[in-house]
Amino acid sequence: NGLQLGCHSRAPRSPAPPALFGQRMIQAAAAPSVDACHVDILIARLEAAAERVSRSRSAQRRTATEASQRDLLKAAEPLRNFLQEAVKGDRAQLAEVFGGSCERFWRIRFVLAETTGLSAIHAADQRWQHLQAAILTIEEVLKELGKFRPRVLLRQCGSQASKGALEPGGLPWGASGSEDELGASDAEAEAEAHQVGVQSSLESTPDGEDGERRRELVGQHVRRSICDLSAADPALMASFFTP
Length: 243
Description:
- Residues 162-217 are annotated as: Disordered.
- The chain has helices at residues 18-30, 36-59, 62-86, 91-98, 103-114, 120-123, 126-144, 179-201, 209-232, 234-241.
- With 243 residues, it is an all-alpha fold.
């Protein structure tokens, strides 16, 4: 008399083929996820560190400047590491995070372009150099996937730049709009930015009625030229203003 076990016997489940299991493991390891929230935190830290560099340089305090530059490189390091891993993963996910309005991409590019005056040793630091290389790689990926939006990096120049953070196209960060609306805003922002440059170059124009009339005529000519070029060849127009 044998003992009866109170359970039904089941046929053993066949394990996944070793080759398929190994392939899944490799794909999971090679495709790190791009966490948009984490990227935003790292970018915000980089922007804050860059702002401290700018303030310390304005104060002309050598010790504070050196310390702020070291802090900038410390903030650049985790962002560099994250981007270097991200470009090895899912390109579609990378484009989803950095594409669209390209806000995150342009915020990083803006810091890299605007943070000048670093000491020779800090400017040559691998963390800074590798961050520049990583963002260029992301630009290439976005272009290959058709997700890149060339934009103008507007500087804070008087009343011509809006109060607060601007998207490179002249819209507030995170502003929504159709492709046509965004394209129109780009053209207007480009014309406005160029107009600022023209007005600055005309500061030496004679005062009085003649000087005022000359400034007005030049401004009208510049606006017409930019609008004509923007309508005829938007890509060429964007290339003039893309850093």
